[in-house]
Amino acid sequence: SSSGGTLPNGFNLQLGAPGAKKPRCGLPRWSRREVCLLSGLVFAAGLCVILGCILALKYVALEHDAYCLEGCQERRAFTKASRFIATNIDPTIDPCKDFYSFACGGWLRRHAIPEDKLIYGIIAAIGEQNEGKLRRLLLRPVRRPSRASAERKVKEFFRSCLDMAEIDRQGARPMLEVIEDCGGWDM
């Protein structure tokens, strides 16, 4: 049965017409567009979660590889250091009586004191090796040629000290210019 009637303003009101669908309880009916959008959103969220997990696993693996590489570097360094110590000690000397000769005796037997030096030891030899390495680095071509490059400035300064002919040609003039730029030097 249906109930209905005409309202005072002339509109016709009909409730529960025959053949009308019953109102649904619960969730509202979603349109096809809303279902597609929701499905896409769920898919994208799932994809983000999967990618996040993959990236996290990669990060953990990279940290593990870096740790392993660091460990390998340490082992190599320990092996090199132990070889260095083994070749430079003198096992025939009692370390409790003369530790210096015990620790450095092997090196001292293999390396004579140069004639131009009053004293010479392993520290001086390492210093000479480091100077040689620095010299080779400073004589390499400049890789960062920009005007503000610290590398370029250091290498140019070093090379300017090596050009003795240019230093002799200029004499004291560059230093006098610096003194003048600083306001002079009263004597």
Written account of the structure:
With 187 residues, the chain is mainly alpha-helical. Among the domains are: 39-72; 87-140, no CATH class; 142-182. It is built from 6 helices and 2 strands, in the order E-E-H-H-H-H-H-H. The protein has a two-stranded antiparallel sheet with strand order 1-2. The radius of gyration is 43 Å and the shape is elongated. InterPro entries: MetalloPept_cat_dom_sf, Peptidase_M13, Peptidase_M13_dom_2, Peptidase_M13_N. Keywords: Membrane, Transmembrane, Transmembrane helix.
What is the compact description of this entry?
Keywords: Membrane, Transmembrane, Transmembrane helix. The protein is mainly alpha-helical and 187 residues long. It has helices at 32-88, 99-110, 122-139, 150-162, 164-170, 173-181, and strands at 3-6, 12-15.
Sum up the structure in keywords:
mainly alpha; two-stranded antiparallel sheet; 2 strands
Order of helices and strands: EEHHHHHH
Average pLDDT taken over every residue: 82
Unreliable spans:
none
What is the helix fraction of residues, given as a range?
A: 55-70%
Write down the overall geometry.
elongated
Distance between the amino and carboxyl termini: 124 Å
Q: Work out the radius of gyration.
A: 43 Å
Strand content: under 5%
